[in-house]
Amino acid sequence: MTRRPSLILGRLIVLVLVASSFAQSTQAETQKRSAVTANVTARIVVEAQSVAPGDTVTLLLDQSIREN
Amino acid sequence: MQETTVDWSLPDGARAAPIQWAVPERIRVGELANYGYAEEVGLVVELLIPPTWPVGTPMPVKADVAWLECESICIPSYATFVLSIPTGSATILSGDVAPMFAAARAALPAPTSWRAKVRGLNNTVTIRIEGPGMRIAAIKSAYFFPAEWGVIDHAADQEFIADERGLTLTVAAGDI
């Protein structure tokens, strides 16, 4: 049985996490140890450092998972 | 199984578009198959700032995100993100994150003018794709990702045949 995309740890592969160098005001991040013995990092990053009202800005939900 | 979801809490007039999914992988688990992402994925969402939002005032955004983490089994996971989006008289992109966003956009499915005809017969779904600009010789593989569960047998192999005018995918039908 299948469904639409989800974050999948199909293979435990060591990840290289993207270095965090963004302004805190435009990024929120969470990191934790998951029940599948892996570290999961999820964050939302904003593409713009400033947005004009009425404009559309792109957000990125970035999820990564790595073996402990 | 459940796809990643985002429950947005936004000021009046702000709107978040649906998630733009990157092309997933098909991941076999025993006799089953699933669609998802290994290692890392970037999911793109467009967010409208209300035209009436006061310039210079950061706009608060709260996002409750739920997803599945899987190995041999899948478990649900949740996180709440609180953002403050700076506003100004002009939209200024951040160069620091440009490569990340470029990679995420490159991972999105690309639209095409090719036409597809789908036919279901005898527990088989046949998808015929033709269109201008198809470089048949350059197509080394093809896979049909359905948007809904049950249309095809997701774990079954998909037969791919290319000819001079297009390509044909033959897929075992699903439960519905």
Overview of the structural elements:
Residues 1-25 of chain A have low confidence and may be disordered. Chain A is mainly beta and 68 residues long. Helix content of chain A is 0%, strand content 49%. Chain B is mainly β and 176 residues long. Chain B has 2 domains: 5-106, no CATH class; 115-172, no CATH class. Chain B has one helix at 98-106; strands at residues 5-9, 15-16, 25-29, 32-37, 40-48, 59-70, 74-85, 92-93, 115-121, 124-130, 159-162, 166-172. The mean pLDDT of chain B is 90. Chains A and B meet through strand 1, strand 2, strand 3, strand 4 and strand 5 of A and strand 3, strand 4, strand 5, strand 6 and strand 7 of B. Strand 5 (56-67) of chain A pairs antiparallel with strand 5 (40-48) of chain B.
The overall average pLDDT of chain B, rounded, is 90
> Low-confidence segments of chain A, ≥5 residues, pLDDT <50?
1-25
Total number of β-strand segments of chain A? 5
Low-confidence stretches of chain B: none
How large, in whole angstroms, is the Cα Rg of chain A? Answer: 15 Å
Structural class of chain B: mainly beta
Name the biggest interface: A-B, 55 and 75 residues
Question: What is the number of E strands of chain B?
Answer: 12
Percent strand of chain A: over 45%
- Gross morphology of chain A: rod-shaped
Question: Oligomeric form of this entry?
Answer: heterodimer
Largest sheet of chain A: 3 strands, antiparallel
Kindly report how far apart the N and C termini of chain A lie. Answer: 29 Å
| Largest sheet entry of chain B | 4 strands, antiparallel
Given helix and strand content, the structural type of chain A is mainly beta
Provide the β-strand percentage band of chain B: 35-45%
Helix and strand pattern of chain B: EEEEEEEEHEEEE
* Number of continuous helical runs of chain B: 1
